[in-house]
Design brief:
Blueprint lengths: L2 H12 L8 H18 L13 H10 L9 H16 L11 H24 L11 H10 L1
């Protein structure tokens, strides 16, 4: 099984109960997704950190030479943010997303979104030029139905 297939299986298994995985696992899965992208481009993934997160440094490396890859930049930043929120019980009470379980659910959605974007980009290079639901993917799917 390839690395991306392993990641997909892990995310699918956690879909019904995202709280089964820890914030560290979600962060690691996100890093693994970006590592797969970088390795597919014939590069060695960085060990550097950006703003305290390797995930952000990997995204930066993966976007070099491919501006459309920046479409997932905010997803990576949001994974880092939700990781910190879960670790520190932040934001303060009164926010709809304060519950620690909710933070893990959000991490699942974000990590899954990153996986879907990167795996889709590996099949359709133009993905990300407009948005994650790029027209080329939708047309390709419609033609096969």
């Amino acid at each position: 099984m390839t690395l991306l297939a392993d990641i997909e299986a892990t995310l699918e298994a956690a879909a019904a109960y995202p709280r089964a995985l820890s914030r560290d696992v979600y962060l690691n899965l996100g890093e693994n997704v970006l590592e797969a992208w970088i390795e597919a481009r014939g590069q060695t993934p960085t060990t550097d950190k950006k703003e305290g997160f390797r995930l952000l440094a990997l995204h930066r490396q993966g976007a070099k030479g491919d501006p459309s890859f920046n479409a997932c930049r905010e997803t990576c930043r949001e994974i880092a943010y939700r990781y910190v929120c879960h670790a520190q019980d932040y934001p303060p009470d009164g926010d709809a997303n304060t519950d620690r379980d909710k933070q893990l659910e959000l991490l699942w959605h974000l990590t899954n979104h990153l996986f879907l974007f990167v795996s889709g980009k590996m099949h359709t290079e133009e993905l990300g030029e407009f948005c994650c639901s790029s027209k080329s993917i939708r047309l390709e799917t419609a033609e096969t139905i």
